[in-house]
């Protein structure tokens, strides 16, 4: 996994404006670059539960998968977020299992399956498996931070920060403005809106990206 960037879960936040919107915030090891991903309510609860484990009486489908994995000697080795298309992150799960065919035992065999990113992360937490992404995705969707403030990575030497005027700029975007923007610019705006907790705008941008599929 040397060619990938390792990620850690920074947290999960709930929109107080737009119902049903949760944001999973991942970051690379230095904490300087963050990757916000919009996820569904059930997966958000499952990830939060696995991180905190405050209610032992509650379980999710991801917990059932662990039971199957133990019985079948399956171990998740890593989760990789490998593609971003129309605002959607695509992931795969890398796992290994024991090959007991023809009397052969303890022979590990690797497999790779595609998965929703939120489901993959929920399993990675439970298996304590590392999460990775590519440099290409970070270049496209990562938000750079310095001293706790988001910065414009293309003007990093000038230390340009996203101030309140930028947040107002996000909120004032109309549907016609969004329709005129390129997919790349929409992805950038989506991530900045999420980081600045402009969830109402994030929902509009996501809807516009989905429309273009």
Descriptive report:
- The protein has 213 residues and is α+β, with helices and mostly antiparallel strands.
- It has one domain: Bifunctional nuclease domain (Roll).
- Helices cover 38% and strands 32% of the residues.
- The protein contains 8 helices and 9 strands.
- Helix 1 (41-52) packs parallel to helix 3, helix 2 (61-71) crosses helix 3 and helix 7 (183-195) runs antiparallel to helix 8 (199-211).
- The two termini are 31 Å apart.
Short précis:
The protein is of the alpha+beta class. 38% of the residues lie in helices and 32% in strands.
Uncertain segments of ≥5 residues (pLDDT<50)?
155-171
Strand content: 25-35%
Cα distance, first to last residue?
A: 31 Å
Query: So, CATH architecture?
Result: Roll
The value of Rg in angstroms is 19 Å
Question: Helix content range of the residues, please?
Answer: 25-40%
Mean pLDDT across every amino acid position = 78
Helix-strand sequence: EEEHHEEEHEHEEHHHH
Give the class from helix and strand content and strand pairing: alpha+beta
DSSP helical segment count? 8
Q: Any idea of the CATH topology?
A: Bifunctional nuclease domain
Shape from CA axes?
globular
Number of domains: 1
Largest sheet, order of strands side by side? Answer: 6-5-4-7-1-2-3-8-9
CATH H-level superfamily title: Bifunctional nuclease domain
- Total beta strand runs: 9
User: What is the highest CATH level, the class?
Assistant: Alpha Beta
> Mind describing the biggest β-sheet?
9 strands, mixed
